[in-house]
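FORM 7B: Structural annotation worksheet

SECTION A. Query
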Amino acid sequence: MEARIERYVKRMKLTSRVIPFLAEEKVAGVIVPSRDSANGGGTGIIFDDNSAALGRAPYHKDTAVPFPVVVTQIESYGRVFRLLENHVPVSIEMDVETRFSGDHEHGFDTVAEIPGTDPS
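SECTION B. Predicted structure
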């Protein structure tokens, strides 16, 4: 249990330095993989992690991440990783628009295409 707490504290310290670094570098956005089965999730599903991957609470103005964070299917993330690893150029387009209209808001927005479904 102590090792788990130590890993958590280490991760939070790193996160507190990563977000300002990425903001200073003016990143366009961050793409993180959905949780895989080894890390408490299932594959093939898009999870809205509320920026938990960056250890923040984006629904509070004072802790909002200053750039978009998108969670994608682990399979799609893996494909992009393999293409880049083999020096194949990859283009990714993200259109993320957010705004605050109050002091504290929980926002959950998942946009996904589920192949094989027919909404009619």
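SECTION C. Observations
The first helix runs from residue 2 to 24. The beta strands are 30-33, 69-72.

SECTION D. Sign-off
Analyst initials: ____
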